[in-house]
Every structure is written in C-alpha cells, then in structure tokens.
Design a protein that fits this description.
Layout: E1 3-16, E2 18-19, E3 22-23, H1 28-46, E4 50-62, E5 64-65, E6 74-75, E7 96-107, H2 121-136, E8 140-141, E9 144-156, H3 161-174, E10 179-183, H4 185-198, H5 204-212, E11 216-220, E12 234-238, E13 247-256, E14 279-289, E15 302-307, E16 310-315
Antiparallel strand pairs: 1-7, 1-9, 2-3, 4-7, 4-10, 5-6, 8-9, 10-14, 11-12, 13-14, 13-16, 15-16
Amino acid sequence: MKAFIVLKHLQVQNANAVSGLTWGFPAITHFLGFSHALSRFVQEQHRVTLGGCAVICHQHEVQACQPSGYGEYVFALTRNPLTKEGNTAPFNEEGRVHLDISLVIECDFSINAIDFDTDDDQQDQRLFEQQLSDKILTMRLAGGTLLDVGRVQYLPLSNIPEQREKVFRRLMLSLLPGFLLVERRELLQEHFDVLRQQQPDAELLDAWLDFSALKYSAQTQSEENVTPAPDMPAEWVRVDKPRQGWLVPIMTGYKAISPLYEAGEVTHTRDSQTPFRFAESTYSIGQWLSPHRVKDIRHIFWHYQHKEDWYLCQNTYQLPVEIN
C-alpha cells in the first residue's frame, strides 16, 4: 500500500437502509461495490486499480417514524401517482436513509503512475483529485444520490514506519467526529461456544440474535431456593448484549445455494453474458469504533474474499494486546 484516497463527507440522499434481515445502514457490499466501480474508472483512465475500503459514518438519518409516538418504527414511504382508475398504485416497501460518510480507499500506486502530461507531480495530483470528484458526483452509492463531496484527497504514504504511522494517526483524527465500521466475527464465535455449553441444541443464529435482539428478563423478589409462582410480582430488566461495545448485526456477503450455471442458461437474469448462480445473504457482527482508537492501519479496510461457495466482505480488525 503506497497511498490512500480519502473521500471526505459524501452526502448521500435516499440510500438503501435495508440489508437482508438488518436495517438502518447500507450493507458493506454497497461500499465495496462503489469502490470497485471507482476502481474500474481509474483503471480505464490510468491503468491502475484501487484496493480495500474503510467506512466512516458521521451522520445518518433513517427515513422512519413511530406512528403512535412509541413502539415499532415504520419506514416513511413515498406516495406514488394514482393509477388511471384513480386508485392507489401498488408498491414495494423500501427503507431509505440519508448519510454523511467518509471513505478511505487503498492505493498500490504512486502519483507518478497518474500522468496528465504536466511534468509536475503536484499538478497531476490536483488534477487526479478533481477527476475523481467529478466522477463521484455521477455515481450512485447504495442506490442513493450523491449530492456533494466535501473533499477528495490523494494521501501518499512513506516507506518509513514512523512516518506512515504519523500520517495514519493524523488521518484518523481528521475523520472525527465519526465512527468506523469493523467486523467482530470472533465475538460471535466466542459467544456461540459459550451458548452451546448452556444449550447444546443452540444454533449460530441464536448467538447472532443475542447481539441484535432487544431482550428483557423478569426478575422476582423471591427468596433464594424458592420457586417463583406465576402470580408473584416481577421486575422486567433489560438483558445486556454478550459483549460490551456498539455491536450491531451486519450483512457481509453471500453464500451460493445452487450450482454455477453457464451464461444465458437461466432466463431473466440481469446479465446474460455472465455465469449465474442463486445465493443467500450471510451475516456477521460489526462494531462502530471511534477512528482514533484504531492503532493499526491494516485494521480499517474491508476486502472481497471469494472461496468456493462463499462471496464475502471481510475486515481483519483485532483489538490491540494490552500489556500490564
């Protein structure tokens, strides 16, 4: 990794807020898809490619409300034009969210690879940043419209570890206030192992729901070793998540559920020139962290991982080892 491309404060309107079984924020696949589309543009223009992507959220506003003032949220839906008979047109329910986010994208090339025939690296860098800014405003992110780009910055990295660390720390501080999304699948596995000891028939889905569901438990005031009676008064207490932190359920990719069909073999597919297979969403646990708490430059990026039937977006975040 020789540099970063930092896209600060992208203003996105009406992005997709529903990701499989989860809602409230777009799936990580949307952001890697966006960086991949931008990489294809850069490759076409300059014959270089981009790498992994980090996601920092500064503000989000889900288009949802509570009709009764409390209880379940429902999505605020658009009102479509009436049919020619004057009836309400049918529609598919969709969740929308307005976002203020920043993206950090890996670059494995120096500015020398970007040539605008100016014979000046600084001028090439400014032209490259402006080219990216102009292109981004023509793209979509998670189905939403990009209204504004705060700043596009090409940030080179030194080969000296101390200087690389200094640039990284300065970048993380510049992204405040905001929260960085990382994956914590190891916490899900640890909780599943504990849950299996308590409930041998428990499944991984049960462990995942413990991180995502809002649960309450009834606690009685009965004495010890006394079986509570059905009519005994109880106090409902919220059950904490298995681990501390801003932990959220996230969608991280797809798992194939069918063989790989040849191009054109399955009718009504989006692309008849590409092999096709049916897939289902896969899920994991994510965590929102303040960027200044991340100590390793490698821990912020998400990458595509393809192995056999799995098509995943993975992040290698790990907590730093504390030395007593």
